[in-house]
Structure formats: structure tokens, C-alpha cells
Amino acid sequence: MGVTDIDDKIIQKGLETKTDFRTIAKKYEHEFWLDMSSLNIEKPMIISRVSDHISCISQFVQSLIDSGMGYTAKDGSVYFDTSKYPAYGKLQRMQDVGEPSTKVKKNKMDFAIWKGHKPGEPSWQTDWGEGRPGWHIECSAMVSKIFGSQLDFHAGGIDLQFPHHENEEAQSCAYHNSRQWANYWIHVGHLNLKDTKMSKSLQNTISIPNIVDKYSADTFRMACLMSNYRYSMEFSDEIMLTAEDVLNKFKFFLKDVSIYANNNSNLHAVYNDNLLNELQKVEESNLECLKMDFDTASCINSLLHLVSVANKIMKLDSSEYYPVPIILIAEYILHVLTDFGMKLTESMKDQISNSLIDILVEFRHMVRFNALEKKDKELLAACDVVRDKMKSMNVQINDSKKTPYWVLVK
């Protein structure tokens, strides 16, 4: 993952606060990683910072100058000559839009790959003069150092498609003398609030700590999985509550399967081909959905279909039961949700806490069962109070006829 710790906004913030740009960048990067951790997003294997790669970036610029694809201007900046790259505009052809025009550029669409030195800005000495990297060149140089001449996937927000990604593709193809640099571009839609893109400048943002505090990381992840990554996602309490309901359906289902498998050992186990065929169809369908542009929303719907099918079987009053296909369905659902980043497994600390909750829920069940037999309204009311207090602590109890169970909700 590339970290841009040198750019116009960071430098401007440093000048305004009289703080070194590195300190500004480290502060925001630290906050970023805290947010990612709270969302259960794992750190990438490689974190590449611009300030650590000035040498390879300047070599990249020098190569473009040597090949004639870059030229030095009077202001000390180096520009990419788009007139010498006929494929410019392959991602999004916008010939009337470019970087702010200056008298030193040959063409309107040319973009800076190295910016000449300005007073107060960080700079490095090179063969063509003093300055700093341009925004677009940073990514290309670092990626080329790590991955070589070609990249399988390159992701970013939809607003980066042009000019940032277009310029990356152009300068990278020119540097490597190739027709294609990134094989697949993944452009992610914006997170909107009331039909408007969330932006600090508009002061309409919701912080990640606030989201996690009100809901949970898994709930927000489920909301994202239920939408198409290419399109803007409207953030609202309604959407988050829907995602929470879906997540809870899976949690309750996995609990139901555990109870079903463990509490019916006295019944005759039967092999159900129809259930297994249904599972196979969903497995094949989900694979195709992921092949077709990571259609996670359809995958979630397919998993909910499996839950519905399995629940109908588990609720049948029959002397026969079907542990094998039901367990296989549960294992598949758990596998997919885990692959999608859901943290459904328990740590040792969670296991101890859950054991204590198990004991409390079982004790309440025994009291409630006796109260029902004796029609003791006072005890039943006390059991309801315990249930409601547990729910306020995000523990929801389900009073089934045979065995009670609980799930964590938020």
C-alpha cells in the first residue's frame, strides 16, 4: 500500500502550523491505521511511503526525461509530454480537462511529474534542479520498484480515475515501454450522506470511531458487502440497521445449527440430497458472482437463501433429522463470511466471557421453566428484566422451547 506523505495539502498544513511536513503526515497516518484497526482491516504486507523512496522516484523521472517523454520547464518542474503518448485517455477520455495551465507547459494536458522548488517547501536536489515529486509519479515509481513492469490490480476512489490513474497508467507505460501497466482498475464509489459525497470541506463527514461506537465493524462491513463497490453508497441509520439485521440472521442461524446438531442425537439421522444440491448450486453461483466484478451483494443474498432453506428443515416436527447437510451449509456460510472479513471466531478472552453468559442464560432458563410450570408471574417478570438488561448490554436471548441461546448484537 502506498502512503503519500508528501503532497500539496500536507505541505500547506505544515506551513500554516509551522510544523515539519513529516510530523503532519505521521499524525494523519497514525489516525488512519487506528481507524483501519477498529474496522478489523488488516495491514498490508508492504507499506510504501513517498519520503522513503525519493531516490527511486527521481530515477523514474530521469528515465522519462532521457526517453523524451518528460521535459524540464523554465520553473524547474518536469512535465510528462502527453503529445508523445497517443494512448492518453484510455481510462477516461477528457481532452478538455487537465492540470491548471501554465505558460511553461507545452500542452494543456501535460502534467507535472516533478515540481520545482518553492520557498518553504521540502525539496531534494536532482540533476535537473531542486524540487519534489509530483503526486502522480509517486505511485508509479514505488509500484514499479516493488512489482516490476506490470500490476494485476490497482484500486482507488472513483474520483481518482481521472486524472490521477490516467496519468499513472500513461507514465508507467512510457517508463516500461509497454502497452498496459495495470491489468484491472477497481474504482470504488463514494460514501454519501443525504445524496452528497462525504467531505471534510463540506463538513458532512461521520468518523469511523463514531460508526463503530454506534454499530460495529462487522455491521459496517456487511453494509458495504450488500452494496456494489462501483457505485456510491448512501450512509443512513436505515441501511446500517438493515445490515445489522442481516448479520444477526447469520449469527442466530449458526447458533440454531449448533443446538440442532447437539440436541437431536436421539433422532434418526438422514442424508438429504436436496439440501446438498442446494448448497452446491449456491457455491457455484457465488463463485460466478465473485468472478463477475466482485458481486458480493448477490453472494450475501445467496447465503440468506441457504439460511431460509436450512431453517425450514430444522423447524420440522419429525422423527428424522439432517445433521450432515445442515452442518455443511453452516460451515460454508461461516467460511464465506470469514473470507469477507467478518470476525466471527472467538478469542480466549471472548470464550471466557461467553462461558459466563452461557451459565447465566442457562440459570435464567431453569428459573423461567419452573416459573412457567408454577405460573409464578413475579419470577417470570424477573426473568424478563434479566433478558432486557442483557439486551441493553448487546446480548440477545432467544427463549426456545428446548434450549435457550443467545447472540451478541449491537
Report on the structure:
With 410 residues, this protein is of the alpha/beta class. The chain is 51% helix and 14% strand. It has helices at 8-17, 21-38, 54-66, 135-147, 161-176, 208-214, 217-225, 237-262, 273-291, 296-314, 323-339, 348-374, 377-392, and strands spanning 2-3, 48-49, 70-72, 78-80, 111-116, 124-126, 129-133, 151-157, 182-188, 191-193, 196-197, 233-234, 268-269, 320-321, 395-398, 405-408. Strands 3-4-5-7-6 form a five-stranded antiparallel sheet. Helix 7 packs across helix 8 (237-262), helix 10 (296-314) runs antiparallel to helix 11 and helix 12 packs antiparallel against helix 13 (377-392). The longest helix is centred in the C-terminal third of the chain and has 27 residues, at 348-374. The two termini are 32 Å apart.
Structural features:
410 residues; Rossmann fold; 5-stranded antiparallel β-sheet; 3-stranded mixed β-sheet; 51% helix; elongated
